[in-house]
Design goal:
2 copies of one chain form a homodimer. Chain A is mainly alpha-helical. Chain A has helices at residues 4-18, 28-34, 40-49, 75-88, 95-107, 113-123, 134-151, and strands spanning 23-26, 56-61, 67-72. Chain A has 2 domains: 4-72, Phenylalanyl-tRNA Synthetase, Chain B, domain 1; 75-151, Transcriptional repressor of class III stress genes, C-terminal domain (Non-ribosomal Peptide Synthetase Peptidyl Carrier Protein, Chain A), CATH 1.10.1200. Chains A, B: Belongs to the CtsR family. Chains A, B: InterPro entries: CtsR, CtsR_C, CtsR_C_sf, CtsR_N, CtsR_N_sf.
Chain lengths: 154, 154
DNA sequence: TCTTATTTGATTAAAAATGGTCAAGATTGT
DNA sequence: ACAATCTTGACCATTTTTAATCAAATAAGA
């Protein structure tokens, strides 16, 4: 590695990789000190290597307790993941399995906590007040349609 | 949490959430001591995070037995609105009427655009592949349960 | 009741803590 | 040498923290 910017870039990418959540949060001055460079070098590194085009979102806050947060957004992976779920679901689906899938979607960051709660409610047997085997069929259908909505939005 | 102001903000919001009444009443000096900060920090937190814009009303009184009371009014209004919708929905519900309600919820800012799309999909007759009159009954049930989730969250 | 003291919150300005911009100078690859 | 990339530093902007001083409400005393 020949220069500071590359080293810092590697460091940040490693941190992102380490956090399963695909995110790293730093204090600018602290990292600058760690690598013995001026703080604004961090801005340079971020501006040239963590751009939107490259799939990163950068947020920051100044003042006491300030930070810089870099998030990697993996659109492709998410689509693949959702397609995978779609294939997973057959003609019928138990409530337990459905809840596992919903939890998985929340963990994978493709739905919000509130969305997860809403979907959980929708597929609950108390909501779907019809008997088996129709209930499992409707549940599968509902979840598949929801996944399609998320998959094909935008 | 990165700084005192955020911590205090969280604390107050949690207190509001705990009180079903959507309100919290504090003694400024007491909270300042609890978090080991100067009293005026409470004013700062309130001024920057519990504004009218954000749906809060702040009342206070000085002198012996003084207090600061923060009320979340937006929630009240939204809760009333959602209760109203709940009463509106009977045992059955057509797709058209359901979509009107969903649109109304989106307009009233109680659900996001994506949530609206998801719910639209869920209550569509193509998703609910069962015959009438059961379909309208299940649809009503689904929408009511969803509204309850939104109503009783926090 | 009237006046004074005490309690308690409000305001505001200064200081401290962070991060952002930009442009000049240094380095590196071709 | 030229162009592109990197490094630095001076100056700026935002947010939080702190302290001094003001204002209002209640409590106490005459």
């Amino acid at each position: 590695m020949r220069n500071m910017s590359d080293i810092i870039e590697q460091y940040l990418k490693q941190k992102i990789a380490e956090s399963h959540n695909e995110v790293v949060e730093i204090k600018r001055a602290q990292i600058a000190e760690k690598f013995d460079c001026v703080p604004s070098q961090l801005n340079y590194v971020i501006k040239t290597r963590f751009t939107n085009e490259l799939g990163y979102v950068v947020e920051s806050k100044r003042g006491g307790g300030g930070y810089i947060r870099i998030t990697k957004i993996e659109t492709h992976k998410k689509a693949d993941y959702l397609e995978h779920l779609l294939n997973l679901i057959g003609d019928g689906l138990s409530q337990t399995n459905a809840m596992h899938i919903i939890q998985s979607m929340y963990d994978a960051d493709v739905i919000s906590f509130r969305e997860a709660k809403i979907i959980d409610t929708v597929i609950a047997r108390e909501t779907l007040m019809i008997g088996l085997p129709e209930r499992d069929i409707v549940r599968a259908q509902i979840l598949k349609k929801i996944i399609e909505v998320i998959l094909y939005e935008e």
